[in-house]
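The protein record filed below.
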Amino acid sequence: MKKGFVVGLVRVAVLSSGGKDSTYAHWWAILQGWDVISLIRCKIRTGDSMTFQVPATDIVEKQSLASETNYIEFVLSGEENSEMEELASLISENMRKGKILEKLDGLVSGALRSDYQKSRIECMCEELGIHSFSPLWHNNPDNHISSLIDDGFKILITSVSSNGLDKSWIGKIINKSNYAELKKLADKYRFNVDGEGGEFETSILNAPHYSSELVCEGEIIWEKTRGHFEFSSINLVK
């Protein structure tokens, strides 16, 4: 058997921001027949993180209910030099105490093209003695978003921070019609159509592996050239 090869039932947790990529990675793991034992939300105490999404991640707990998956929330400082060590320590403690992450084989993430993010997660997993899975790595941007739409993911834009994307895009659901418009803007203003450069962030309200759809309310916070959607309520609807 090759070193690092996983056999039998694979038990994984998903590092989830509630956005399109981590939610798609969650669904991918289910399609492999793996046991997804938990969604892990990394809640950042400060206003920013080099590795993890900050806005709108409150939705992950509701997504865990919609997908009938355990939920774990780990609070991190967001400090570049320590946040991964903090996460490793929290995961290790959970595993050691025989909690939800006991017998964990690996972590699944929605990393697309950020070598920085992917390598940091891989190094942490190696330290923990578990596997790191990045099933979306280097997916074609256009094919990626088109597949999400075709597969029934309801994608809410929760923040924008790029030329070409104004306040009107916050709170929009990406569908086939406005995705064509988004592609035109991406070509014109030269930003990543999948938002991989941080041009926009998303939250998923429905997906193939959800038994309930999420309905949210909130307000748009706009600051000159960028803004985000701040949830006031998130509810499940059968």
About this structure: Residues 83-96 form the longest helix (14 residues). Confidence is low (pLDDT under 50) at residues 1-5. Residues 141-237 form a domain with the putative n-type atp pyrophosphatase, domain 2 fold (CATH 3.90.1490.10).
